[in-house]
Specification:
Elements (H helix, E strand, L loop, with lengths): L10 H6 L7 E4 L2 E4 L5 H18 L5 E5 L3 E3 L2 E3 L3 E5 L21 E5 L6 H13 L4 E6 L4 E6 L3 E6 L16 H6 L5
Parallel strand pairs: 7-8
Antiparallel strand pairs: 1-2, 3-6, 4-5, 6-7, 8-9, 9-10
Length: 186
């Protein structure tokens, strides 16, 4: 019996594939399709982008992007929210933003969905940290907690009224309670 062993896809192979909805990512030599965002996930993602951009984008300090593909360190990932310092945002000569971000984010935020593996999502944030990302957050709506990842892959757990670490230079104060209060519309 002659079986052919299919070679593992490369990042270049992955980037040639058509886009999927929800997005697919390439990390650790595997292609993985993200989960379809649901209510809590979408609410947190939208609020985070809005709150960060109301301060950072207006002052041209940084900009938060939802679902932006970032290709760096041999991976192609789509964090739920990425924040780039203003001077690192790739702009075209015309002043318009580039479509391709082939750099690591300065701050990467992931929101855990019920069917997602915390280990796989955390591995994306650790990949970011290994490749220069200054701050990572993993929001867990079920536990109402935030894991923060710092340079050197130091990980800290935040809950309750604890003030969350923010990317340096952004004058923003957020607590874990504040973030998860966004899920209540009453």
């Amino acid at each position: 019996m002659n079986t052919l062993i299919k070679p593992k896809p490369t990042l270049e192979d992955f980037l040639k594939l058509p886009e999927t909805k929800p997005a697919s990512e390439f990390i650790n030599g595997q292609i993985i399709q993200k989960s379809m965002p649901q209510g809590e996930h979408s609410t947190l993602q939208g609020e985070l982008c809005t709150v960060i951009n109301q301060i950072a984008k207006v002052q041209k300090i940084a900009c938060a992007f939802p679902e932006l593909r970032c290709t760096f360190g041999g991976a192609g990932i789509v964090p739920d929210v990425t924040v780039f310092r203003w001077e690192r945002i790739p702009f075209l000569r015309s002043g318009r933003i580039a479509n391709r971000f082939e750099i690591h984010p300065d701050w990467s935020i992931e929101i855990l969905s019920p069917e997602q593996s915390q280990t796989k999502v955390l591995s994306k944030l650790l990949h970011c940290s290994r490749n220069g990302t200054e701050l990572g957050w993993l929001l867990d709506p079920e536990e109402e907690s935030v894991l923060a990842i710092f340079p050197g892959q130091k990980v800290e757990l935040y809950t309750g009224a604890t003030q969350l670490p923010i990317l340096k230079g952004i004058e923003l104060e957020l607590t874990v309670e504040t973030i998860f209060r966004w899920l209540s519309f009453s």
